[in-house]
């Protein structure tokens, strides 16, 4: 990096730009051990904690996200922070997580994590600096060690390991549900990290009001979480940080005290160039939500939910919520092809099943079975569809007092299930952040209309670009949209 022994790893072990340039061979032979994150932190007793938890964090958040241009952008921000740090001998490992959730957190030993979802929400380098500076503040203040003493990390880790070893998929689900309470700090620790972080970014030459702006963006995000289709709310910012209003007020007070002597820069254009093309939302491995339709290129399947329903692609299943407390759940399980679907439906995994309601059918040429069940205040329709060695399951829940017909609603969803053609699979592309420049006459409506795969386009456009309900776009300014 630019100074000190700070390193960045936005993949697992990718080198910073300086480290890469230093690797060019010369006529001189060096006997020094190369400086890496691991060697720099070798004498740090806290590093064993972060190192042991790092693989679990990767598993919970979809692994590391690799994008050389984005990594270089983040490395530049970290380099400026490193030059202004109170602790120039401390090493940091910055990992970009391949998750649409919006979060950032730190572990003892210099491990700092930011999700690509958070980077999509940020609008300039100063805001990302505020996030990373905040997490550096946690490390500088030894908050992680204090938390470890409270939470008995060894017991927590052993429980997660046993879950993973007993059942791999169950272990992954356990991780995704946020059972690793590793990122939670107390309110006072968060306030202290805010204070340290804002002073830090001001010394680095960044706008001290960036922390306040981004906290406000987080607050706006909390009201539109479903629009981001976050895989699991337990993995996002609100699950690991206290509520925003008081933090915003304190951040504003600190920034005003610093701004007179250090107005700082936002560095918006450079940052937007760095995130242009970054993956947004779900990846191909998880399948895509496009409006009311779920499509999975790997599995080669798709289905559509009725109008008025909102789809959410979670770690465990695809969920849809609709009017009148109605809900639909979709998932898949392996089933031997020689096992009867009728026997499978009657095998006991459906509580309250009405045996006489079980009926065989075919959906687009595929073998299927539907049945009705009742439990609590709900009526359920269950439809299973066989495709090779996999069985896909739809569970439709309608309140017993509802005038809606659960069977008819379930039939419309199940009947929409179909296999994608080779051409359709090949045509499916992930959504990405794209940067566009506003032209004379453009409005939030005309620019947001270019976005695809997003419900409530104008609202999402305003959220991504930190525009209030009455703010207009400015000709010549650059803005984020979501497109393929």
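Sequence proposed for the structure above (484 residues):
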């Amino acid at each position: 990096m630019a100074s000190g022994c700070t390193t960045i790893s936005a993949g697992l072990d990718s080198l910073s730009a300086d480290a890469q340039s230093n690797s060019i061979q010369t006529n001189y032979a060096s006997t020094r051990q190369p400086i890496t994150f691991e060697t720099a932190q070798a004498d740090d007793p806290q590093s064993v904690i972060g190192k042991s938890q790092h693989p679990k964090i990767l598993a919970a958040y979809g692994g590391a996200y690799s994008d050389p241009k984005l990594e270089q952008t983040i490395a530049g921000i970290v380099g400026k922070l490193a030059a202004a740090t109170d602790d120039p001998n401390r090493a940091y490992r910055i990992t970009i997580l391949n998750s649409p959730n919006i979060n950032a957190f730190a572990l003892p030993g210099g491990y700092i994590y930011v999700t690509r979802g958070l980077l999509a929400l940020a609008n300039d380098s100063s805001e990302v600096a505020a996030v990373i500076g905040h997490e550096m503040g946690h490390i500088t203040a030894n908050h992680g060690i204090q938390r470890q003493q409270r939470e008995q990390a060894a017991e927590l880790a052993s429980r997660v390991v046993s879950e993973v070893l007993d059942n791999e998929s169950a272990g992954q689900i356990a991780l995704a549900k946020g059972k690793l309470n590793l990122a939670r700090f107390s309110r006072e620790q968060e306030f202290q990290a805010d204070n340290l972080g804002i002073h830090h970014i001001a010394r680095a030459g960044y706008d001290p009001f960036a922390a306040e702006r981004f906290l406000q963006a987080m607050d706006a995000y909390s009201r539109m979480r479903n629009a981001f289709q976050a895989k699991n709310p337990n993995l996002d910012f609100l699950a690991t940080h206290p509520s925003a209003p008081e933090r915003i007020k304190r951040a504003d007070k600190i920034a005003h005290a610093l701004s007179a002597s250090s107005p700082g820069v936002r560095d918006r254009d450079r940052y937007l160039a760095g995130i242009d093309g970054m993956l947004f939302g779900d990846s191909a491995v998880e399948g895509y939500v496009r409006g009311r339709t779920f499509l999975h290129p790997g599995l080669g399947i798709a289905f559509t939910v009725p109008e008025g329903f909102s789809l959410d692609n979670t770690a465990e299943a695809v969920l849809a919520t609709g009017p009148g407390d109605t809900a639909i759940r979709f998932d898949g399980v392996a089933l031997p092809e020689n096992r009867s679907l009728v026997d499978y439906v009657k095998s006991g995994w459906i509580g309250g099943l009405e045996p006489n309601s079980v009926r065989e059918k075919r959906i687009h040429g595929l073998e299927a079975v539907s049945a009705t069940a009742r439990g609590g205040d709900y009526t359920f329709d269950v439809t299973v569809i066989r495709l090779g060695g996999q069985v896909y399951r739809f569970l439709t829940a309608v309140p017993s007092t509802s005038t809606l017909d659960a069977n008819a609603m379930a039939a419309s969803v199940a009947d929409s299930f179909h296999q994608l053609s080779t051409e359709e699979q090949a045509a499916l592309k992930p959504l990405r952040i794209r940067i566009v420049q506003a032209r004379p006459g453009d409005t939030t409506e005309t620019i947001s209309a270019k976005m695809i795969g997003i419900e409530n386009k104008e609202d999402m456009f305003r959220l991504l670009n930190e525009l209030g309900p009455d703010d207009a776009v400015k000709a010549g300014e650059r803005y984020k949209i979501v497109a393929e």
